[in-house]
Amino acid sequence: MHGPQAYSLLTEKIISTGLATGDPARAVALLERSRGLLSEDAMDIRRDTSRLEPALADELRAVSTHLRALDARDRAISQSIDRQRELDRKIAAERVRLTTRWTRLRAMVPEPAPLDLAAIAADGPVVMVASVSSGAHALLLTGNHEQPVRVLDLPALDFHTASERALTFLTARHYATSDAYPLRVRLSAQAEVRDTLAWLWECAAEPVLRALDLTSTPEDTWPRLWWCPLGFLGYLPWHAAGAGAGVLDRVISSYTASLRALDFVRSIPPSAGDGRTLIVSQSEPPSASALHGVEAEVAALHTLLPDATLLAGPTATRANVLAALPGHANVHFACHAMTEAHTPGMSRLLLADHEAAPLTVADLAALHLTGRQLAVLSACSTSEVSPDLTDESLHLTGAFQLAGFRHVIGAQWPVSDSVAGEVSRSFYGHLTGSGSHAPRTDDSARALHTAVRELRERYPATPTIWASYVHTGA
To answer: Is the separation of the CB atoms in 425 and 299 below 8 Å?
Structure first.
């Protein structure tokens, strides 16, 4: 895996070269090839296994699964330093062996067709944002076949300022969302979060929307926009930028880790309206605090989704969830999540047996489900990225997308279970017409946007309550 500095240098070289030669479309194509290559290859292979010999497709999937499983080695068990170093050496050697095998097998697979950059933006603009030492730029994909990529310079998003702001935001977000600190500290941190959202709007988000002619609140049909921030910019909540009015008042925002990831989820056929929903509920996981709002959340969901299957309490185990997922188009998790910053493959949902058999990012990313529609992760920090892997989709939201879900709802930082329940009730209410019809999953981004705006109206001065929720997918 590459570190953030390597990605920054590579991104800078690609962007600088693309802009110097006047070929931003070429720069975008090179950026796509430089980011998250293993995940992107897996998406290409899953999207079109029909063009491969069955044995080759099976072997590629197996190697991909084993590579991800390396991240699932349990490092939580107390071990001596020497034992840990030995384990690290074994994992590194196994990764080299499997990566070599993957490269050999991948060479036998026909290269995927180049992405049609105009087609990628047919449903709404896609905005790739980068801040490197040579400058900051937004690469705007607008669906124009004659000029598929436009470049917007963002001088106020310079690397030094932006990286300092991102670090300040992460620190303030931590203080603002933790009950461990006095009220005055949390209020001060909340003000810092608001300042970050105002700065992000002024220096980047508003200029982007202005360049795309998205300058007012829609009266009828809301336009959509996909954010694709590069590197450390992925820590910032672009969908929530603004002081008072902002991005939430101009467009419905979604995120994508890359253009190929967006192309992959769009290749998943949309729902025919007859898919069942699996609800996984765990309010009292072992060795974790109780979630007192989960039972009320699940009861409300059952009213809106009366045909849903429920796995709750002791039945909400890793094995039961993995067995149930293939038989359901949609899944909703109401539970704790744990993010492992330095071993992201071990990030997991806290189910009944999480201590002995955790349901991890590595487990989920290895699944090969077809025709899945919606995964809602009503849990904390499910879209939080590792500081060492900001250009990879190694978090729970990305894992569900790679498993084959067309839409995924997650959170960028911790949220209270009462707020999570409030958002879930509003989201599914909009998605089902207050229970009058089955979930219209292709309205997921719109339903979340509406739920978040409602929450912002109630808590305008507390953005950590409402700005965490994000939609990733088609």
So the answer is: no
